[in-house]
Fold this sequence. Notes:
Layout: E1 6-13, E2 17-26, E3 31-36, H1 45-55, E4 59-69, E5 74-78, H2 80-97, E6 115-119, H3 123-193, H4 199-213, H5 216-235, H6 240-260, H7 264-284
Parallel strand pairs: 3-4
Antiparallel strand pairs: 1-2, 2-4, 5-6
Helix pairs in contact: 1-3, 3-4, 3-5, 3-7, 5-6, 6-7
Amino acid sequence: MRSMTAYAIDEGxxxxxxxxxxxxxxxxxxxxxxxxxxSFLAPLEAELRGVVSDKVSRGRxxxxxxxxxxxSEIEVDVDAVNAEKYVTALQxxxxxxxxxxxxxxxxxxxxxxxxxxxKKRDPEMYKPAVMEALExxxxxxxxxxxxxxxxxxxDIFTQLERIERHLxxxxxxxxxxxxxxxxxxxxxxxxxxxxxxxEGRVYAETAVQLVKHSINEEIVRMRAHFGGFRSMVAExxxxxxxxxxxxxxxxxxxxxxxxxxxxxxxxxxVIEIKDAxxxxxxxxxxxx
Length: 288
């Protein structure tokens, strides 16, 4: 069992740059991977998403990559159009002011727009470092998700055992429920007919009522769901949605038991079971 809530960060560095990669996730019904990358790493986004999707099946995953340059290669070029305009303007100004000194390069250096500077940033140059950081961060991320999942599993199984315990109480009370139905029907017929009660009719009506109020099938199905729940957890892999579906089925069965029974002991056990199921479903919202 793996939690959808986890966090990891990894850093790598070489002689030219350092890479910091952060992964964090929160609950989500489906898998949603969001990448926050420097613009020059945009071509790597699809591949990064693919790596995460291969390891994670559900949750909102935020992946952030930061790059800090230690040595950068830049290309500097002269904007010839702007330079020519500045030279023309300075020559005109010198003429107006009566200055005959020769125009030199340093006279132009204070003006903006003379040079264009572009950093050489080929995504392929950064890719090995980014992918290695991602693999290491993912490993830590998944290990944390597993640890959180183990805690969640322990709590879920505690609730499951609570359900089994109270279902045992319901099973013990089931014969009393049947006997109560028989006794009430006999009392009703006796009140209406006195000593002339037709026992055959009483038995027939009792059988009808027992069919309507029998909870044996619901108990059997709930026990089958317990087995399915444990088998699914033992198989591993993504299981949150499937386990939540089983909880819905358990809830349906216990609601039926509650509607059929009029014994206080069973009603009390039904309340406990419904509370435990709700606690399980709350925990399963964080299970991948």
